[in-house]
From TrEMBL, chains A, B:
InterPro entries: Alkaline_phosphatase, Alkaline_phosphatase_core_sf. This is alkaline phosphatase. Coiled coil: none annotated. The active site is at S222 (phosphoserine intermediate). It comes from the Eukaryota.
Length: 652, 652
């Protein structure tokens, strides 16, 4: 039966090959759409909504005559059972019929010619249902008389015994194995090809790879991928914990519950911590509590931290215990945000910290909001090496226009989060997500030095976390996971003699500065010198960032840019600039690397930055349930493994 | 004591920072050189040579007055013991003193100006010694009165009980996690972001990462990296199972024993199989038996398959049981090779096969040499999809000038190797190395389609191998490992609408054909169609190689080239051509991708191809000892784990 339904699904999938890249609606195999879609996986008892749509395209390659079916029916069939009307199966009222239309382009030619295809839609949505019994289900939409769209759903049959008291999930946003290799090379000394010290990541007992693909595209963004990691559901680019329907409203899409919501529902006294070096409305932290098809709805994101969902009945949710990061602009009153969230959080018994000193002095027995600057947190490299770049930013988190010059890093934030959660939840345990966000952000702008600095800060944070957990007596009860949400196509192929490159007059001669194979030589980032940087015992970063021989780094796809393979001492890179302000027409910024060579882009000319890549990303695990994380698997298995380890499955 | 000696070594290492990329002699920390160098690891009982050198640079930044010391001394100190003269320690005669000089360039400026630095050398070499007792040793060279070079050596303390009867080591040359991800995407169907089938690699229970760095450069070549995998010793680019000394002779360098040699020495009736899709004199197969500082000494390589070493006393070695691959030119009499190796192998009771039919008909109870064409084996894509590319190659392995048109692939060769070794060595067990060589070779020429085809053939070979071992009742006694020797900086960032790209007039408009994030869409390589390719149950390759929407693939460093993101149906790519035959001046080949965009290179203009990259590469393991292969470690640990699993350590 399972096999048959798979064959059915493949046949349906093949039928829409004409629109593989430009899609009428992702996850919708024919004119009937069921969300959650075919092949969806569920935790037993996880709340979700069901969206049904019937499409009637009025023009384009799929054009048909007539209105979309208003009389479609929907049944659920448990394996070896009979189809049961969804209203009866879930004991809910029949939802009201909705109607709308939407348009899309079938391909780039249609886009250029501005000839959209228009689709009329009938739809219903079932809110807040759950499947409590593990097993296979068929969700069947019947429409246009004899047509059917079948979604095969699997409620995973997981052990229900809780094995971990605490879980800390580190996310190196955009981090790949290739970047870890490069970070190790610049921060750890080696002799004759052998490292004298190890990264914290290198010491993990279990290694896995996870596949990051989206539901309807093989490249994901961070909203979509964080959703998969936290909820077990793959969705569409830009979506946070909803499947994206074809309606315009970014808040009416079918939702599903996240690990934070489920953990708190099962254990009202368990602790939740959210830590990020991004602005806190950004996708990776947002995906723990937000539900919207548009990750750009920042006020929605902050409001869900504060009060959960208000537009529909959903899981009881009273906010994280600890919320630390940047992005003060979304907490202050503004055009977008009618409320002062600092006030609201303070009224809800949070202590509010605006700088590192206040963070470290905040009481451990109180909930804690820490917002340390506007925008993203300054990078490790700027906070620790090129500190002049922190000046004249007018980015103090109170909106006063001062500079934020007393900034914590990922390590200080994460260790404080553990202190608070340990103090407040030593009985019921806690879940922390800690994100090194700017590995991704700096890779986007081809600022490899800053990206690797962020990765090394993550590694140092992991090291310090393990030490702290040991000190607190919690290490053996804590599952520690380090992974990424997607990659960037980064690697290193050798070294560059920057002195030689500078001395040459033209690009073809400058390229002779590149050494590969035996001429790559050894890393000069770890050698000493009069001005070499020094760190505490066990802490590993480059002792210098500007050796004569640097890394020959690159990504596989890029905008037009200049490249001189040197650290940008004056602040983060801007590799491409819009010609006369035309955001559809980026050219290399000459100023970005004056002595560099010109590299013509391979991305569309409207791309100012690099983009995410396909590669599976690594997973490092230690602690209770570590054995679940070995080998190769889907990103959603991270969610199911954490849920299993916390005993959150309601099955049997 | 260990800590102290590490500090000493780091200090020494730092002293030569001026020559990190251009080095006087790799692995030589100061004017005294000891090979095996500092931090070398040994299997207890493994044979090796010791080379000592004392340098006296007569000009350049290290210039000194006087001859190199002819009276240097050399001692071995076991931990907590006293220094013992090497002659006494190893019970060998004092070697005779050698003298030579050599020159090198201190950097690219010196190279441009042709101002070499000259070095006079005194040297000795100790042949075929071994350390049988596990533990730490200091090898100390005393010279110029008070100067010392200390090499810290570790003989690993490993269990000696044999746990695996057989070992098969698959090497995807140049294969990375990124490539595995892309290969899966084009060969395995998915629905809503979830694969309906798995790669054989995805099913392995244990995953690791290995670091591939060379002894004296962070980018390795395949000779050096295969040496590390088979012997536990990291050396220099282009070297096969020797440390590279400064003498000119490519055959006098200090050797060390390989896994094939050690296994045969311990178990004279154990079987050895060598399988590769490369020419058999190529580095990855060669590194099982060859000992030379120059991987280009092809006649040496073939002679070591046939008779082992003849220039010095070394391990008894009477050749592999099975040797299958390509490169007939090195088996035929020629200017380089004075002997007809087909005759010699036949005289040594090998059956000799020149085509797939003969391979499959060869008796399983006889030793087997199979050489199927000149040069490298045609790629899977040309053998199976674009077969017209096999014509007019005059590459039949007998040198007759016919076409080789009855070619086996990696799978047929590997399964036959198992048949022969199982028949001949069912009591004593066997070791096979099977290499998918052209993952690397096709990545070098930016022919991503062909490279991924090779990777998928490797995966299919692994699948079929596991099935065969199960069928033979040998699976539980066989350690199966799949890994790589180094990476290429490959990844995929989206899709390309090739129809749209073709329809645009200029490069900047063509780039709009690239779709990323949600516009990457779904893989069209697995969808059906009237001419779609079909495979047997369980075999997964693309059903079409030329969909309208292809992968937006790239590498991080490249020569000048044109790119249209389409499969090359007329044969493997040649992305760059030498201008007027000048091998120091490569430009994009317009013909290679007529409709494509021009991408200016980031490698020196004398590079016709892409190059190897830094990234750690994956290791997949199953069978006895699989638990040794999890986590992150050095490439040399692959050797030590295999040796441990075969019970080859003589310690205690």
């Amino acid at each position: 039966m399972r096999t048959l339904s798979i064959v059915h699904a493949i046949a349906a999938f093949v039928s829409c090959t004409a629109a593989q890249t430009f899609q009428r609606l992702g996850g919708c195999p024919d004119l009937g759409c069921v969300f959650p879609p075919d092949q969806a996986d569920f935790l037993a008892g996880q709340y979700f909504d069901i969206r049904l749509e019937v499409h009637s395209p009025i023009n384009g390659s799929e054009a048909r005559v007539g209105e979309p079916d208003p009389n479609f029916t929907f049944t659920i069939t448990k394996k070896r059972g009979k189809p049961i009307a969804a209203t009866k199966f879930f004991k809910v009222d029949e939802p009201k019929l909705e109607r709308w239309d939407f348009s899309w382009y079938e391909d780039r030619f249609a886009e250029d010619a501005d000839t959209p295809s228009i689709v009329n839609v009938t739809s219903k949505i079932y809110r807040r249902v759950a499947l409590k019994e593990p097993g296979e289900y068929e969700a069947t939409l019947n429409y246009y008389g004899s047509q059917k769209t079948v979604a095969n759903w699997l409620v995973r049959d997981l052990p229900t015994k809780r094995r971990a008291k605490n879980v800390i999930l580190f996310i190196g946003d955009g981090m790949t194995t290739n970047m870890i290799t490069a970070a190790r090379l610049i921060a750890h000394k080696s002799i004759n090809g052998k490292y004298m010290t190890k990264m914290a990541l290198d010491k993990f007992p279990v290694l896995g790879h996870q596949m990051t693909h989206s539901m309807d595209s093989f490249i994901t963004d961070s909203a979509n991928s964080a959703t998969a990691l936290y909820s077990g559901h793959k969705t569409t680019v830009n979506a946070l914990n909803v499947y994206v329907d074809s309606s315009e409203d970014p808040f009416d899409d079918p939702k599903f519950e996240t690990i934070a919501e489920i953990f708190r529902r099962h254990h009202p006294h368990a602790g939740i911590g959210i830590v990020s070096t991004a602005f806190l409305a950004d996708a990776t932290p947002a995906a723990l509590t937000s539900h919207t098809s548009d990750r750009g709805e920042y006020d929605h994101v902050i409001s869900t931290y504060y009060e959960g969902l208000t537009n529909y009945t959903w899981t009881e949710w009273n906010g994280p215990d600890v919320l630390l990061g940047a992005g003060a602009e979304n907490f202050l009153k503004s055009e977008d945000a009618k409320r002062d969230y600092y006030d609201l959080f303070a009224q809800n018994d949070y202590s509010v910290a605006w700088n590192k000193t206040a963070l470290q002095n905040a009481p451990n027995d109180q909930k804690l909001l820490g917002v340390f600057q506007t925008s993203n947190l300054a990078t490790w490299l700027d906070r620790n090496v090129y500190q002049a770049n922190l000046l004249n930013k007018t980015n103090y988190p109170d909106g006063s226009g001062r500079d934020a010059d007393d900034l914590p890093g990922l390590k200080e934030m994460t260790l404080k989060a553990i202190d608070v959660l340990h103090e407040r939840h030593s009985d019921d345990g806690w879940f922390i997500m800690s994100e090194a966000a700017s590995v991704d952000k700096q890779m986007h702008t081809l600022d490899y030095d800053r990206a690797l600095g962020e990765l090394l800060e993550l590694d140092d944070t992991v090291r310090a976390t393990i030490e702290k957990l040991k000190h607190l007596g919690e290490l053996e009860d804590t599952l520690v996971i380090v992974t990424a949400d997607h990659g960037h196509g980064f690697d290193v192929t050798g070294s560059v003699d920057t002195k030689y490159l500078e001395a040459q007059d033209d690009d073809r001669h400058k390229r002779s500065a590149v050494g590969y194979y035996e001429s790559s030589g050894l890393s000069q980032y770890t050698t000493g010198g009069p001005n070499s940087l020094r760190y505490s015992e066990g802490v590993h970063f480059p002792t210098r960032w500007d050796p004569r021989y640097t890394l020959h780094s690159g990504v596989v796809a890029f905008p037009d840019h200049h490249e001189n393979y040197q650290v940008h001492k004056d602040g983060p890179r801007t590799p491409a600039l819009a010609a006369q302000g035309d955001k559809n027409n980026y050219y290399a910024s000459y100023k970005d690397a004056v002595s560099g060579i010109l590299i013509n882009g391979t991305l569309p000319v409207d791309a100012a930055q690099g983009v995410h890549s396909l590669t599976d990303v690594p997973v490092f695990a230690q602690g209770p349930c570590q054995e679940l994380f070995g080998g190769v698997y889907s990103s959603i298995d991270i969610f199911f493994n954490i849920a299993e380890c916390l005993g959150l499955s309601e099955g049997k």
